[in-house]
Design brief:
Layout lengths: L1 H8 L6 H16 L10 E10 L5 E7 L4 E3 L1 E4 L6 H13 L5 E3 L5 E7 L2 E3 L2 E3 L2 E11 L13 E8 H7 L5 H15 L1
Parallel strand pairs: 1-9
Antiparallel strand pairs: 1-4, 2-3, 2-10, 5-9, 6-9, 7-8
Helix pairs in contact: 1-2
């Protein structure tokens, strides 16, 4: 837990939402030993905002589960090293391993609601992802591949294209807009 706590403590919020989530996340880590696993109705995840060098496109996957384009990411599954989790997820979901981190440490925090769904034939109740986002730069011409059990396509979308393709009903859309604004201010 110490690596996770240190990473979040070192994060500087850029808005009220991140200030509130930072306080919440630190409390969760201090008081819920299972919050890094899927054993709770909410748990920590890590996401990647992998941009091209022009910083106008993001590497996305068309996820089989949600039937839409989204950023790369996944569950911590007990690992308290958020950066290691997201690098592993990027490699697994897209094949991309050559990355340059954009900024120092965590780029964004957000609490994301997940609707109930079926996964591998089993019911998953609605829950919360306490999400840690890191930003990276990768060459647009880099080797990419799909991970057939998770996604049907992997590719580069313009930032606004990703936002437009994201349903208004998801908390992820607001997170994308916030991250795009932070990138554009950087």
């Amino acid at each position: 837990m110490e690596r996770a706590i240190t990473a979040i403590r070192n994060f500087t919020p850029s808005c009220e939402q991140e200030e509130v989530d930072k306080t919440l996340f630190l409390d969760l880590l201090a008081n819920n030993p299972k919050c890094l696993t899927r054993d709770l109705i909410g748990h920590f995840t890590a996401s990647a905002w992998v941009m091209n060098p022009a910083r106008d496109k993001i590497l996305c996957a068309h996820h089989n589960l949600y039937k839409r384009w989204a950023w790369l990411g996944g569950h911590c599954d007990g690992d308290d090293d958020f950066l290691a989790v997201i690098k592993r997820e990027i490699a697994e979901e897209s094949g991309v391993t050559k990355l340059e981190q954009f900024g120092d440490g965590i780029f964004s925090l957000e609490s994301l609601s997940v609707v109930s769904h079926q996964k591998n034939g089993k019911y998953v109740p609605a829950h919360c992802h306490w999400n840690i986002t890191y930003a990276f730069i990768a060459d647009e011409d880099c080797y990419i591949r799909i991970k057939e059990d998770e996604n049907s396509e992997v590719g580069w979308l313009y930032f606004d294209e990703l936002v437009d393709r994201t349903p208004d009903t998801t908390s992820v859309k607001a997170a994308y807009r916030k991250i795009i604004d932070k990138v554009r201010r950087s």
